[in-house]
Amino acid sequence: MAVGTDSFLHLARPLAPSALGVQPTTAPLNVIIQPQAVFSILDHAVRRDIRDTQSTRVIGALLGVRSEDGMEVEVRNCFAIPHTENEDQVEVDVEYQKNMLALQLKANPREVLLGWYTTSLELNSFSALIQNFFASPETGTFPHPAVHLTVSTEAGKEIEARAYISAPVGVNAERAAESCLFIPVPYEIRYGEAEKSGLELISGAKDSENRAAPVVSDIEGLERAVDQTLDLLERVSEYVNSVLDEDREPSNALGQFLMNALSLAPKVDPQDIERDFNNHIQDVLVVSYLANTIRTQIDLSQRLATATLTMGGSDALAATGGEGGGDKGQRGGQRGGKRGGGGRGGGQQREPREPREPNE
Amino acid sequence: MADSVPKEIPLNSVQVEALVVMKIVKACSATFPTTATGSIVGMDVNGTLQITNCFPFPTADVAASDSHPNDHMAASNLAAAAPRSKANVTYQNEMIKCLREVNVDANNVGWYTSANMGNFINTSLIENQFYYQKEVNERTVALVHDVSRSSQGALSLRAFRLSPSFMAAFKESKFTTENMQKTKLTYKDVLVELPIIVHNSHLLTSFLHQLPAELPKKELEFPASLQELTADQPPIPLYPNLESLDLSIDPYLEKTCDQLLDSIETHYTELNNFQYFQRQLAREQTKVTAWKTKRTAENATRVAQKLAPLPEDEWERLFKLPTEPSRLEGMLNARQVEQYSRQVDGFTASITSKMFAVKSNLLPDSS
């Protein structure tokens, strides 16, 4: 379920000069990123404004949940923040950030501000400035460390991501605001069961020329899964065969694994299988049959309810010409006998044998 | 927006960005089984509605009611009505204004909702979609994500619009038999489904190629032991999803059957309502006829007595004919039943093939 990264060494980081009473947490931190957050960042990178700003990167805020002990943060959501950046200054739309944060939190009350992202791997003094903004007690995540996620979005290169937290460094007081030490922290991209089917569909489109894929029905999905499984089986049996022919090097571990897998096949009496199979398939087919019958009945009743029927005879004996007689049809045709009228309750045949209201 | 677009090209397909798919999946599964709703933004290009972003609507204090499991119905209803509520319209406008600043398409193109085993066709859906299609922008869609079905196999995401004829009828809320006969409106015409295409950006495609995807083509090192193999399993590709090979179908069938029974129940209620109406009508009409005969007789005597005849149309004031109940509920129910049975068909198709596969696997010589 997870795309892990290399191993990380957690270092105790220097403490920030803390505000009164509140101790900043120093526990190691593990960052979990959900795919939709990554998707959102990439989308933002695609939509960046290239006209009036020299910066090639965009920034945004990360939202998500933090575990109770603060050891683990899960990035679930993020939003873009407009900013401009040039050689000597950076401007972040603080007002926008505040508004958007309020809006986002309204819809997802359980999420909190976790940190920020940017779309280049570079860390510079502007990064420190923004990082300090996001880590500050008033506008940021203090006493928890603010997470900084960098995602490289250069065309034609691998997309790399790194996660950092920060610690203050000992420079003089005037420059404290624009300097900090970025400490890399481990992260992983993790997706849950629910997202799996979505990701499946999305990755289905990745090899096609126009980067698009239609939503498939269950049966098509099944077909592909079966094809895939057959391919895999083919591959395994090919390997086993070539080992038997002494073409390829055998492996004890693989053999053991295959043995274990094969021994999972249940040993059941053929008759039992036959019986269970028939029972189950009958159940399934009956459900399907009933569902379709119900559909037909209701379809019929809807049709009868609105069919423009010409008046046939005046009373009980309806014109027998199919659509011939009947008034509003009473939505009657379905569910034999439900009409309760003595015997006349017209079962499921098409001619509605209903008493009419003369002037409908 | 809607007006600047030439109306000649009707919407014929919906193209959803991968981001939107993921966001909807997340939002819907997070609140499951409570209904989740949200707004989608995008634009339409030559009849294809491109949906490029979405955001959820705030749910009013659902979190507070989490302790009572029975409340989720109430919460669902609340959430289902969310797209129409005033607070959310403000929220939506606010959000779109913000999104515009970061170059997201600032054009509302509809809304999304979650469903549970296909039970999404109800008045709430119709009213929401009507609200969107009527006022905000004509070219809007409702995206329906079925959480339970997606967990069973392929992702279930569908796009719906109300048909123009249904729009017209709903506007005047005329769902009488007479009117439906005239307009030939049937339950099949309520919703129009549009095909959905999922689209990825270039960057995303690049990213997806880094996720575990295909099995490595090159020769791998042999594992030293079984432990190593189990501890360090090769990554499982996302696509195709092998989980659709799972055999357990019964819970889904059972759930669908339950829902079908509910629908039949609704159908009977509607039926009874209508029969009640017809009996009522018949009774009133008998009374009217009786009154008319009496009045004619009276008038005859009055004429004989050289008195002015009493007016004969007074019955309209004296007797009030019952109003015909709306056909809408019945129509939606019929559409819902159709949806269920299609769904069952789908289940049956895949489960039978899977079962035959299993059978011929276990009993190779029987077939």
Structure overview:
The complex is a heterodimer of chains A (360) and B (367). By secondary structure, chain A is an alpha/beta fold. Chain A folds into 3 domains: 30-194, Cytidine Deaminase, domain 2, CATH 3.40.140.10; 216-264, no CATH class; 268-306. Chain A has helices spanning 35-46, 94-107, 125-135, 193-204, 218-244, 252-262, 270-306; strands at 2-3, 30-33, 59-66, 72-81, 83-85, 90-92, 112-118, 147-151, 161-167, 181-185, 187-190, 212-214. Chain A has a 9-stranded mixed beta sheet. In chain A, strands 5-6 form a two-stranded antiparallel ribbon. In chain B, helix 10 (250-304) runs antiparallel to helix 12. In chain B, strands 7-6-5-4-2-3-1-8 form an 8-stranded mixed beta sheet. Chain B folds into 2 domains: 13-60 and 72-242, Cytidine Deaminase, domain 2; 249-359. With 367 residues, chain B is an alpha/beta fold. The longest helix of chain B has 55 residues, at 250-304. Chain B has helices spanning 18-31, 71-80, 86-101, 123-136, 147-152, 164-171, 177-183, 202-208, 226-231, 250-304, 315-318, 328-362; strands spanning 13-17, 37-45, 48-56, 108-115, 141-146, 157-162, 191-194, 196-199. Chains A and B meet through helix 1, strand 4, helix 2, helix 4 and strand 12 of A and helix 1, strand 3, helix 3, helix 5 and helix 7 of B. Chain A: GO terms for molecular function: metallopeptidase activity; translation initiation factor activity; translation initiation factor binding. Chain A: Residues 317-360 are annotated as: Disordered. Chain A: It holds the Pfam family JAB. Chain A: Component of the eukaryotic translation initiation factor 3 (eIF-3) complex. Chain A: It is found in: Cytoplasm.
